[in-house]
Amino acid sequence: MTGTTAAPRAGVIVAIAALASAVAFLDGTVVNVALPAMSAELGGGLATQQWTVDAYLLTLSSLILFAGSVSDAFGRVLVLRIGLIGFGIASIGVGLAFDPVSLIVARAVQGAAGAFLVPSSLALITSLLQGGAQSRAIGQWTAWTTGATLAGPLLGGVFVDTLSWRYAFLVNVIPIAATFVLLTRLRGVEHRRADARIDVLSAVLCTLGLGGIVFALIEQPNLGWGHRAIWMPLLGGIAMFGAFLLRQRTARSPILPLGIFTVRNFWTGNLSTFFVYAALSLNGFVVGVYLQQGAGLSATLAGLASLPATVLLIALSPPVGALSARVGPRLFMTVGPLLMAGGSALLLTVREDFDYWTQVLPALLVFGLGLAATVSPLTSTILGAIGGERSGIASATNNAVARIAGLVVIAVLAAIVGGSLDLEGFHRAAIVTAALLVVGALVAFLGIRNPRPAETSDISG
């Protein structure tokens, strides 16, 4: 590839990856502020609200490893097209939902399609770009996709307050169509492997195993660990996922090649991811809800409150990604979470006499700086540790870890906040968030090694 064509191609690749992923990330958060309006119009009460979120998370988390293996075997572009079509149809289904059942089914289909979008879009970057171009691209991808996650509450709030919650989902058709147009410019960049195949038994064991575990985590706060609808899916899920892991040792085409976990930066980076993304999920949920229920802000203002962190992330992630590629990721993966922990600690200044400018804004600015310093180096390190034909499953594994971390921390939310998200509960959540981030920083400091130039491990299983 010559210097005259590398830049345009890199720009197209990043645009495709960012658009495809941003749609899935955006919908994962925009729904939070839309839930009261959705429930008021369609009925169903709290159960509908819970499953509107949970149906998406359940299918996304249980299918993401399978989707990553399909991406590796049959090509990123093909899998992206499948995910985009499915997500577009499901988004229309959500926007046109006429009762709670149709809404929940459409959200489940959205989650399944999202599982095909995220790992294949990021693997497109890692498989087609190398070196500094790859690091800059991952930085840009990180900025826009994480920015979409943080901007979700704002977008949802605007639609809820000015138009209808339905438009927040119907508008997905626009970026999906734009991504399809851009995909026409990537013809011939990849080919299906001649020996491509999927181990169907492994796929079933993985999907049902993760699905059972995730279902139990989601419903446990409602039913309790002693209920058979919780412990039976949990034990069954653990057994099936254990059988899945055993099969990966002997399968000719493993969905999850266990050898990738012998790579130090990969397993250490994923362990750090678990703590960092658990903290991100806890912080995003608690701040978004408390600003509305505790501080009395509207849905739009609660969404606007997170805008400073979003701006910092979008502005700083690309240069941080490039700098991390030159000096190594260990420093950023250590200092970034510590800065975020400091931002979380500043939320302890929130009082009953609420003032956004002095109590919340400083915390979000520090948190945003730490977030920008963390996410791009973290993502680049994990995916760079594997590379090659297994970049799709590496991305899927990291995304699965991040999603499961969020599920776990929200599942134990009642214990964290003490049963109620009042001011005391808000402060308790801020302390737990800071503690999780400190642990994530320590894992990175002790475990991450700055790679030599062009150092990756291509493990084919």
Order of helices and strands: HHHHHHHHHHHHHHHHH
The stretches of 5 or more residues where confidence is low (pLDDT under 50) are: 1-8, 454-461
Biggest β-sheet strands, sense, barrel: none
Head-to-tail CA distance between termini? 29 Å
CATH architecture title of the largest domain: Up-down Bundle
Can you describe this structure in just a few lines?
By secondary structure, the protein is mainly α. Helices cover 79% and strands 0% of the residues.
Q: How would you characterize the overall build of this protein?
A:
The protein has 461 residues and is mainly α. The chain has 2 domains: 3-198 and 253-447, MFS general substrate transporter like domains (Growth Hormone, Chain: A, Up-down Bundle); 199-252, no CATH class. It has 17 helices and no strands. The chain has helices at residues 3-42, 45-74, 76-95, 100-128, 131-162, 167-170, 173-183, 200-223, 228-248, 264-293, 299-305, 307-327, 330-346, 356-384, 391-411, 413-417, 423-447. Helix 1 packs parallel to helix 5 (131-162), helix 2 packs parallel to helix 4 (100-128) and helix 2 runs antiparallel to helix 8. It is globular and about 65 Å long. The relative contact order is 0.14. The model is unreliable at 1-8 and 454-461 (pLDDT under 50).
